Amino acid sequence: MDSTNQGLSLGQSTIELTGKHAPTCGASIRSELSKNERTNDTVARHAIPQELGHERKQITVVYLGV
Predict the structure, then answer these.
(1) pLDDT(66) > 50
(2) Theoretical Cys-Cys bridge with 54: which of 2, 8, 39, 49, CB 3.0 to 4.6 Å?
(3) What pLDDT, on the 0 to 100 scale, is given for residue 4?
(4) What are φ and ψ of residue 17, in 5° steps?
(5) CA-CA distance, 1 to 24, in Å (whole number)?
(6) Is the CB of residue 29 less than 8 Å from the CB of residue 40?
(7) C-alpha span between 9 and 32 (Å, rounded)
(8) Higher-scoring residue by pLDDT: 3, 58
(9) H helices present in 1-66, as ranges
(10) What is the pLDDT of residue 35?
């Protein structure tokens, strides 16, 4: 998968898992989210690295933002 397709897949995964765009795409940052939205964000931040083949959950900061 090239980086363009990976970016599109990541964006779609974020929307599917959280119902929102990632902060890197202009959405609210984590500290601005409601408790329920933070829970969904946490689930997404654990699932997305696995989808992308990464072992480190911290890599999501690069893709999704803070």
Answers:
(1) yes
(2) 49
(3) 44
(4) -85, -30
(5) 21
(6) no
(7) 25
(8) 58
(9) 3-18, 35-52, 60-64
(10) 94
| Relative orientation angle of helices 35-52 and 3-18, to the nearest 10 degrees | 150
Q: Which residue has the tokens 């779609």?
A: 12
The residue behind tokens 């970016």 is 7
The tokens for 17 are 């898992």
* Domain with 25 in it: 3-64
Q: State how far the Cα of 30 lies from the Cα of 42, in Å rounded to an integer.
A: 9
Q: What is the pLDDT of residues 9-56, one digit of tens each?
A: 667 777 887 787 877 777 888 888 899 988 988 888 888 777 777 767
Distance (Å, whole) CA 16 – CA 44: 9
Task: Give 66's Cβ-side CA count (13 Å radius).
Answer: 3
The number of folded domains in the chain is: 1
Residue partners of 14: CB distance under 8 A and separation at least 6: 20, 21, 22, 25, 44, 48, 64
